[in-house]
Amino acid sequence: MNKTKNYFINNLIVLVLIMLPVLSAYSYLDMDSLLNDLNKEGLTFDDYQQCVTYYYLNPDPDKLIRVFKADISDDYRVTDVGSFMAFKHFIATVAYNDEKFLEKLKGLEGQYSGVQQEAIQKILKHLEDYESPLPDCAIHLDYLWVEFMATGDEKPVKKIIDALNLPYNKNKKNPTDRDLDDAITKYSAKWSLRSNAEQHKKVLEIIEKEAQSAKGPLKKELEEILSDVSH
């Protein structure tokens, strides 16, 4: 198998993993452990999903702190980079936009040690250089989605829509690594826009608005998403 095919397969595996719903990232981990840690904070898994997935609709800093404390209780959940990165960016986004939540987060640092304290420190460090990423890879799309879930801001959704403009020629004989990255990112963007439009009325409204002013291939992509959602 040549290098290009290997590259594509490896990245396709990554795509399958990261395109799982962001807040079901722990579904393949020890669910009993997570449920137990949530229970200690007086929370259910539904509380966990609702608090994070729809935080922008009902911001509750106190509840989110409890969710965060439950989430970092398990060493594996904190140290598993793949599953913690998006959640870290979510917490950082809320803290970046909510000074009171930031103070509550800082107050936790002295209550923990080991990997839990390190996790809090990483989030606080992330805040020092906080910026919204470009939609240039599938992982960054996850970051943009949690920004939307944290704030309800339409800007990250528009960035994801911009990823549909990435060039992709499926008939190219010798695609480069960049070609394959763009193809994966473009597919991820379309898949995630469709999925989140089904879950979030506001995402659907943003796509509908952008489709009205879009032209050419982008308009076609957005109309296909809307058609899928409506059915």
Q: What are the salient characteristics of this protein?
A:
231 residues; disordered N terminus; mainly alpha
* Helical run tally: 13
Q: What is the beta-strand fraction?
A: under 5%
For the report, how would you describe the main beta sheet?
A: none
Report the mean per-residue pLDDT as an integer: 86
Write structural notes for this entry.
The protein is mostly helical. The protein has helices at 3-18, 31-40, 45-53, 61-71, 75-79, 81-97, 99-109, 114-128, 138-151, 155-162, 177-199, 201-213, 216-230. Helix 2 packs across helix 4 (61-71) and helix 7 runs antiparallel to helix 8. The chain folds into 2 domains: 26-128, no CATH class; 153-230. The chain is built from 13 helices and no strands.
Q: What's this, in brief?
A:
The chain has about 230 residues and is mainly alpha-helical.
Layout of secondary structure:
Blueprint: H1 3-18, H2 31-40, H3 45-53, H4 61-71, H5 75-79, H6 81-97, H7 99-109, H8 114-128, H9 138-151, H10 155-162, H11 177-199, H12 201-213, H13 216-230
